[in-house]
Amino acid sequence: MEYYIAFWNVENLFDVVNSPRRSDKLQRTLGRELSGWTEARLGRKIGQLASVIRKMNDGSGPDLLGVCEVENDHVLQRLATACALPGRNYQVAHHDMSDNRGIDVAFLYDADRFSAELTFSHYVVKRTATRDLFQVNFRSAAGNLLVVIGNHWPSRMGGRYETEPYRIMAGETLAYFHERIRQIHGTDVAVLAMGDFNDQPSDRALTNYALSHHMRAKVTRARSPKFLNLTWATMGSGQGTHYHENSAAVLDQLLVSKGLLTGNSGFMALTDTVEIVRFPEMTATGTYPVPIRFGRGAGSNRDGFSDHFPIAMRLREKVS
Fold it and tell me: Helical H runs in 132-283?
C-alpha cells in the first residue's frame, strides 16, 4: 500500500471581508488587507487551489495534504469539497491558533485511508503570537500509527538573522515534542514533520534545534530524536518552493523519523520520491520559474495560485 503525502502553503486563504466568523479584534488587525476580498474572489481562489490538488498523484489527489495560511474551518471545508474526486472522502483536521493574523496550519485527509485519532496544538512561546505546531495522530486502515506534525515557523520579515531566534524557538519545540512522542509510542514510531519552516534545510534552526540532518545514518543510528530532511537534496537542483528577489529557497520541507527510514513503524518513506510540485499553469514563464501568486484583496490575480509551490512524497505501508 502506498500513500501520496503533500504540503502546501496556500497563501492567505482568508474568509471574506467582514465575515461573521471572524472576531472583531482580528477584523481590526487585518483591516484593509482584506479590502475587496469578496465571495467571488474567495471562490475563485479555492477553485484555483483545488485544481492543483486534484491534479496531484497522477490525477488521484493526495491521500494526506498539510496546508498553512488558512483562516478557519469554513474555508478549509470549502477547499475539501472543491477537491472532490471519485473514490475520495476528504475530511479536515484543524485547530484555531493564536497567530496575530489568524492564519492556521491544518490537514486534509482521505478518511477512507486514514482516521484522525488525536490532535494536539503545541504552543510556541514567543512574545508576539505565532502559529502553533499542529500534531495529528493518524491511524491507517491496517492499524499502523502515523504521527504528522504541521509547521509554519515565524517569517523572515524584519530580517533573516534578526528573526532567526524565533525559528530556533519553533525548532526546539518540535524536537521536544518529537522526544515526547517517542517516549509514549516507542523509538520506532513513524513521525513526519512537514511545513513552511521559513528557513533552508541547512539553517541552524533546523539542524541544531529541530535536529534534522541530510545523512541517513545520523538518524538511523541515533538514540536521540533526529529527523532526516528529505528536502535537502532539492537545494542543489536550482529549484525552490519559494522565490525572493529572484533567488530560489527551499522553505517547505519534509522531515522523517527513524521509524520511517527503517520501516519498523509499519511505514517506509520512499526517499527518492520527494518532489516540488510545479505544474505548467502555476509556474511563470519568465527568467525565473516562480510560482504565480493569486494575491489578495481587490488586486488579486484570478489566474494565480500561491506564492509557494507544494512539496510531496510517497510512503509505503507494510500490510500483513
Answer: 160-185, 204, 216-220, 258-262
In this structure, the strands spanning 212-213 and 227-229 are parallel
Q: Which residues pair with 21 in a beta bridge?
A: none
**183 vs 62: CA distance, rounded Å:** 30
Q: Which fold has domain 2-317?
A: Deoxyribonuclease I; Chain A (3.60.10)
Query: Which residue is associated with the grid cell 534545534?
Result: 209
149-164, pLDDT tens digit by residue? 999 999 998 889 899 9
Residue type, 128: T
Closest by CA position to 106, among listed 116, 89, 91, 92: 92
Output the CA torsion sign for 72, 282, 3, 212: negative
pTM: 0.96
Residue by residue, DSSP assigns 25-39 as HHHHHHGGGGTT--H
Do 194 and 230 touch, CB atoms closer than 8 A?
Answer: no
Q: Sketch the domain layout of the chain as residue ranges.
A: 2-317
- Residues 71, 105: Cα–Cα separation, whole Å: 9
The length of the chain in residues reads 320
Residue 15 binned pLDDT confidence (cut-offs 50, 70, 90):
very high
